UniProtKB/TrEMBL annotation:
Protein name, UniProt field: Aldehyde dehydrogenase family protein
Annotated InterPro entries: Ald_DH/histidinol_DH, Ald_DH_C, Ald_DH_CS_CYS, Ald_DH_N, Aldehyde_DH_dom
Keywords: NAD, Oxidoreductase
The keyword NAD appears for this protein: yes
Organism classification: Bacteria, Bacillati, Bacillota, Bacilli, Bacillales
Length: 485
């Protein structure tokens, strides 16, 4: 299968058709694992964004608005089914675009993308709203309507997974959409457009414009007066730029932003379990997951034992070719990002840190943006590597002595996305979980998700929540109807 799937050139998808950019403008798509140009991508401008938004606006009044919730649910289920039928192909394209291991793309990204549609297909059919009887005077009940045209701006780290996490509830609630994938990862979104059409979604309901962010397709979408809501996942500073751009037209906003998540390990935790999961929470997807626990705090009595085992297991991780069986860490997304992560490793050394694992390129790889999984010790809590989001395969490990002190360190950041706590002391687990400032808190696990639960960040890690009912809160508007009795 891997040899049969070729990378694709990526065109926009507007009103049910693939189209080129005006004057045929394109940019290159580069495979980060080989540094080769694997295709071209249409470079969207304000004109294409406008055409996509107008198509989405018209589609709100077209056949789509006649679909009952049950019919929408059936269409969503079909989209999920087709994703599963094409899962190997999608996983290959995702691995080529991102540099992530194919096995991870298949098991995590694409499987979850299909599940996003299956989950919201089911959730939709059991959705209710509020109703109140006010003595014998009146009956009040709320009805749910779509918000309208939703602009979706996505990052490159989990391209199809995060796009479908937005698209499924957006369609479930009856909206129309214009998606803009990250410029680095255009392929699976391009295929998704075709899948959505094949599943029976009317033309114009889902549109796609490729291109860049600032002063390009991204900002054209966020400024467009006919876009009613923007759902954005990406960097905190981009969120701030989008908020400014969206302000004049008062768009509804949902934000999933950056993180610098603590992984707190108490001495009573089961160390083998801690190590198995911490390898994933540190280096899964090359550390390019917003939820990665890149600040590891270990209670002093087990600090040395933890470090020894963690370093040993990290050095055993297979790094390199995303398509080689058993690869756990692939290439980071781009040359730019590779340089940025390497720069942070340099900063760690300048700040007095010791690189106890990794720090360079894996042996034997001549091409590709590969970075060995890297562990840094000996830094202070004020160092830049402990405080700033690196978003690569680099973690810091610091010892701690007191529960109160580790909570203070964990919270000493403007981020508030995720936290993992390792302890077998039930009371401490609850106590610490209540005090850490994060939207997603795991005890003795990591990345265990139930899509009904609220997902999102505190502080500068996000605005709003996604998941189950919370997604419907964003993708629909409630109108209250009062009937006098
Ligand atoms: P990014 O903010 O650079 O880009 C994300 C998207 O925004 C891209 O499609 C880009 O083209 C677009 N964009 C950039 N500037 C824009 C502008 N001014 N106007 C409109 N669009 C613009 O983020 P990234 O580098 O692609 O992704 C990595 C970041 O995403 C990390 O900070 C990570 O923590 C975060 N992230 C968060 C979550 C979460 O759920 N909280 C999930 C994944 C990634």
């Amino acid at each position: 299968m891997i040899n049969k799937v070729r990378p694709i050139d990526c065109r926009h998808f507007i009103n049910g058709q693939y189209v080129d950019s005006d004057k045929g403008r394109t940019f290159d798509n580069i495979n980060p694992a080989t540094e080769e140009v694997i295709g071209v991508v249409a470079e969207g401008t304000q004109e294409e964004v406008d055409a996509a938004v107008q198509a989405a606006k018209r589609a709100l009044k077209g056949p789509w608005c006649e679909f009952t919730p049950n019919e929408r649910s059936n269409v969503l289920r079909r989209i999920g089914d087709i994703i599963l039928e094409r899962k190997e192909e999608l996983a290959i394209l995702e691995a080529m675009d991102t540099g992530k291991p194919y096995e991870m793309a298949l098991e995590v990204d694409i499987t979850r993308a299909a599940y996003n549609f299956h989950f919201f297909a089911d959730y939709l059919t059991s959705l209710g709203t509020e109703a109140y009887q006010q003595d014998d005077q009146a009956l009040h009940y709320a009805i749910r309507r779509p918000v309208g045209v939703v602009g979706m701006i996505n990052p490159w780290n989990l391209p199809l997974l995060l796009l479908t996490w937005k698209m499924a509830p957006c369609l479930a609630a009856g909206n129309t959409a214009v998606m803009k994938p990250a410029e680095w990862t255009p392929m699976t979104a391009t295929v998704l457009a075709e899948i959505i059409k094949e599943a029976g979604v009317p033309d114009g309901v889902v549109n796609l414009v490729h291109g860049f962010g600032p002063n390009a397709a991204g900002s054209a979408l966020t400024e467009h007066p006919d876009v009613d809501a923007i759902t954005f996942t990406g960097e905190t500073k981009t969120g701030s730029a989008i908020m400014k751009a969206a302000a004049p037209t008062l768009k509804k906003l949902s934000y999933e932003l950056g993180g610098k998540n603590p992984n707190i390990i108490f001495a009573d935790a089961d160390l083998d379990e801690v190590i198995d999961t911490t390898l994933k929470s540190s280096f899964m997807n090359q550390g390019e997951v917003c939820l990665c626990g890149s600040r590891i705090y270990v209670e002093r009595p087990v600090y040395e034992a933890f470090l020894e085992k963690f370093v040993d297991r990290t050095k055993q991780l297979q790094v390199g070719d995303p398509f080689k069986e058993g690869t756990k860490v692939g290439a980071v997304i781009s040359k730019e990002h590779y340089d940025r992560v390497q720069q942070y490793i340099g900063i760690a050394k300048e700040e007095g840190g010791t690189i106890v694992a990794g720090g360079g390129r894996p042996k034997g790889e001549q091409k590709g943006y590969y970075i060995e999984p890297t562990i840094v010790t000996g830094l202070t809590r004020d160092s830049r590597c402990v405080r700033e989001e690196i978003f690569g395969p680099v973690v810091t490990v610091l010892p701690f002595d007191e529960e109160e002190d580790v909570i203070e360190q964990a919270n000493d950041t403007h981020y508030g996305l995720g936290t993992t706590i390792w302890t077998n002391d039930l009371r401490r687990a609850h106590r610490v979980a209540h005090k850490v400032e994060a939207g997603i808190i795991w005890v003795n696990t990591w990345y265990l998700r139930d899509l009904r639960t609220p997902f999102g960040g505190l502080k500068q890690s996000g605005i709003g929540r996604e998941g189950g009912m919370h997604s419907f809160e964003f993708y629909s508007e409630l109108s209250n109807i009062t009937i006098k009795l």
